[in-house]
UniProtKB/TrEMBL annotation, chains A, B, C:
It comes from Brotocaccenecus cirricatena. HAMAP family: Thz_kinase (MF_00228). ATP binds at residues 117, 170. The keyword Iron-sulfur does not apply. This is Hydroxyethylthiazole kinase. Keywords: ATP-binding, Kinase, Magnesium, Metal-binding, Nucleotide-binding, Thiamine biosynthesis, Transferase. Catalyzes the phosphorylation of the hydroxyl group of 4-methyl-5-beta-hydroxyethylthiazole (THZ). Substrate binds at residues 41, 197. One of its GO terms (molecular function) is magnesium ion binding. One of its GO terms (biological process) is thiamine biosynthetic process. Pathway: Cofactor biosynthesis; thiamine diphosphate biosynthesis; 4-methyl-5-(2-phosphoethyl)-thiazole from 5-(2-hydroxyethyl)-4-methylthiazole: step 1/1. Its cofactor is Mg(2+). Its EC number is 2.7.1.50.
Length: 273, 273, 273
């Protein structure tokens, strides 16, 4: 069921416009190519409207935002919304600075995001208007676990309803909800947290998945989460003694490159609540 | 014949100033080091004149242009031209937005480029004043093939004459012409298109090749194209089951690192028309 | 003795704010994660004060400086100084342009740096007010060698005293001094110079080491230098035929990921003068 979402990316080669941080942008581009999409990057306000017009989706990531790129996010977002494109927000570091929190909140208020994807701290910041983000990594005390799963699912469903978006909270257990249903996903490995940008990569890839599956957007977002986690598992199984996080980064992108819908269906670990 | 062009890079260690996009800049730096050159990056208008003065060549790539870096391109280009440095233009995404098209055309009108390198859509945009660029990748319908090779060679020769530059159009078949002769090159693999930035890498490396070979610039530009394609072949031969585009990226740069002139002469596949 | 400095990084997971160049930023983030630290990147003047406040150290690298990021460096630096955070300066390319030299000198005059790390050309530029930097790589004629070791050690001690900072000069032989003692370090391999950004990576990692070891800052800075060099040795030992600088980059970060204090103690090659 989720596998077809990946197959549709490879069939339709969705072009994704990324306004993303300069830390992980190369990996975002390569994982988009790996999954069958096509990336284009542009953040200059005078450039973004034309660029987003030829794309199917827009991935806005505020990881290394600046005053110029914030303008670019708004102009690109307005144009993408006019064209009914898929719009994804990755609020990197929301809660860690006033500028990041305010920028993410402003974007949410002014743009009809299709998907909002972040860690639990970032999403709580957006949902509750506050947060205790420790840097850009999730505060461990907030982590979704089997102990707090019921309340976490309720929180994500509620925020999805209020924001009129699919909300994806990623961590040891991932939650993806459109407000009605919630995918609870258990793919992935803890070592993925030792690589910079697995979240950014997922946001880019998720945009492509949702563009390629207009009739099943929730499943597409969940499929991207399962694919990323499964790639983390497959990539880890190929690690040799002495390998570390830099090689692991390559192995994960390689695993996406070699994944097809059947493998995703077989490896995806989720339940729907 | 082409191999000596690579040997000259390793002998003279040309310093190349790159104003290039933040997506693929790390790979551009590493491939420049791999081929024997030395990279330096600077795009701030107040910095670029000093930096370009100590270099032998300037590689301008408009992949993630912004208003500030466009100023940097013009100031660096004027200084480099005064000093008779090698000047290369990589018009990434020309045709995909008005800003990109206009910036590339402005740069061409104001600077005496030694080389212009792009895919067929980008080069047609510059040559014909129009284009149907689909994102930053070449439109398949425009691809140079055995069927349209004669007209493609004639087009590239004509544009080289009119622009007073060496023109390199890269794709499944690569064409490199100074307006008189045209190298038709058949190195490379289609999987290279699944890595972000092989074109950007080639532009950086080509700048070093042309700087290191002032008496045979056309051969040097063609040698860089052959070297990149041959590295794509060598790199692919070292791929293991489960490897994908991220590992392939590393393998290609590694192959350049280990290539010498004799290997390039042996592996280069071209004819001159 | 140095090994405990690495163990302390893994125990305390120091959060490091990096204002660094876009060429090597991804590798800086991954090596910080590899050694047990946590990276965050932000260069927007309106963002940096909040971000640096939640961190333990600030790594300022001027590799692709621009007018906006220079403002960010000063604002972040002032806030970090108020909070008595660890402050590191990596003056990439000082001596290669007036803007870089002036920016590095301005930063030194206005901020109480804990550590200044660069190659011999850059450090001489700062110390002597002049330099013959060839691009961003060290001028070979300046290289620290067994022949000029006594005078080089005296120079580094003197500059450390005058700048009230730990000074780290890296090259074939590395020198790290607080003005009283000088670590003379002989780890590493010459092939590390064929990878872009090993110096930038070291600066990021060194910031984490010094943050995690407030009572032995000199030892911590020296430990970071030894760890980087040892990783270069370990990484090289894992290279296969056909591997080159791109794979070597991964192997070095991987080696940091797998290094513990005992291995560092065993592999560190240094004397104290």
């Amino acid at each position: 069921m989720l596998g077809i979402c990946l197959d549709n990316v490879r069939k339709t080669v969705p072009l994704v416009h990324n306004i993303t941080n300069y830390v992980t942008v190369n990996d975002v581009a390569n994982i988009l190519l790996a999954c069958g999409g096509s990336p284009i990057m542009s953040d200059e306000p005078e450039d973004v409207e034309d660029i987003t017009s030829i794309c199917g989706g827009l991935n806005i990531n505020i990881g290394t935002l600046n005053q110029r790129s914030i303008q670019g996010m708004h102009r690109a977002g307005k144009k993408a919304a006019q064209l009914h494109h898929v719009l994804l927000l990755d609020p990197v570091g929301a809660g860690a600075s006033a500028l990041r929190t305010n920028t993410a909140v402003d974007l949410m208020e002014q743009l009809p995001f299709t998907v909002i994807r972040g860690n639990i701290s970032e999403i709580k910041t957006l949902a509750l208007g506050s947060g205790k983000t420790r840097g850009v990594d999730a505060d461990v005390s907030d982590a979704v676990s089997d102990e707090n799963l019921d309340s976490a699912v309720a929180f994500v469903k509620d925020f999805a309803q209020r924001s009129h978006a699919i909300v994806a909270v990623t961590g040891a257990i991932d939650l993806v909800s459109d407000g009605q249903r919630c995918f609870v996903i258990r793919n992935g490995r803890p070592e993925m947290g030792k690589i910079t940008g697995t979240g950014c990569q997922l946001s880019g890839m998720m945009t492509a998945f949702v563009v390629a599956n207009p009739d099943r957007r929730l499943e597409a977002a969940a499929a991207a989460v399962c694919a990323m986690g499964l790639a983390g598992e497959t990539g880890w199984s190929r690690m040799a003694p002495g390998d570390g996080n830099s090689t692991y980064r390559n192995r994960i992108i390689d695993a996406i490159y070699n994944m097809d819908g059947a493998a995703l269906d077989k490896g995806a670990k989720y339940e729907v609540r």
